[in-house]
Amino acid sequence: MPIVQHTTDPLATVYKSQAQPSSDGIGKIYMGREISQVMGHQGAGWLERPSRSISEQPQQFIPALNLEPTDTVADIGAGTGFISFRLAPLLPEGKVLAVDVQPEMLEILESVQQQRQIANIQGILGTEKNPNLAHESVDLALMVDAYHEFAYPREMMEAVTQALKPGGRVVLVEYKAENPLIFIKPHHKMSVRQVRKEMQAVGLKWKGNQKVLPQQHVLTFQKSL
């Protein structure tokens, strides 16, 4: 399939496009990877499916984040708040910045937040290129099943890196592309090798893969001090 330069993007040398997108991709290529389609707010029910806690086991990886009570955590691609609401009780003196590009998702999240009377979650409407986080304000940027959908991963991660405090961390939870027996659409999975390559491109240092989940990687990177 022919591949041509993606000339409409400001970083034209970074992105390429292919004439025919894959069934679950958008036809835009970044560092050899076709970016996946985005789950729209119409799929909010899927994010809150009862089986998600069983299949994704957030109770396993969240403790492995080693959060401090005072931390500011950006849940980027927060959706309906499935992860944000599990982080909030661990941050009694800190907060969760729940970032999403779809206002409809944030409306759902904020409605549930009001019902539960949770004060330390702040919804933030981001863009495809910027999470709209303050400079050096975040201890941890967490992306759960989200990064592979970013339409502008280079710009987004550069902005995330700027938002991290010195020594701040990025953690990506992604379904394992290395395992063909994990029945997730191919472009909604990522390999360790690919993620490391993309994070290195924005200056983040590899810290390791916490192997606490059966189907997903928990990949940690750090900003320089």
Defining key terms:
single chain; 225 residues; alpha/beta; 8-stranded mixed β-sheet; 4-stranded antiparallel β-sheet; 12 strands; globular; disordered N terminus
As a whole number of angstroms, the C-alpha radius of gyration is: 17 Å
How much of the sequence lies in strands comes to 25-35%
Q: How many individual helices?
A: 7
Give the beta-strand count: 12
What profile does the largest beta sheet have? 8 strands, mixed
- What's the shape? globular
**Helix-strand topology string:** EEEEHHHEHEHEEHEEHEE
Distance, first to last CA: 43 Å
- How confident is the prediction overall: mean pLDDT? 90
* Unreliable runs: 1-7
Helix content: 10-25%
What structural class results from the helix and strand content? alpha/beta
Report on this model:
The longest helix is centred in the middle third of the chain and has 14 residues, at 103-116. This protein is of the alpha/beta class. The chain is 23% helix and 30% strand. β3 and β4 form a beta hairpin. It contains 7 helices and 12 strands. The strands form 2 sheets. Strands 5, 6, 7, 8, 9, 10, 11 and 12 form an 8-stranded mixed sheet that branches. A 4-stranded antiparallel sheet has the order 1-2-3-4, with no helix packed on it.
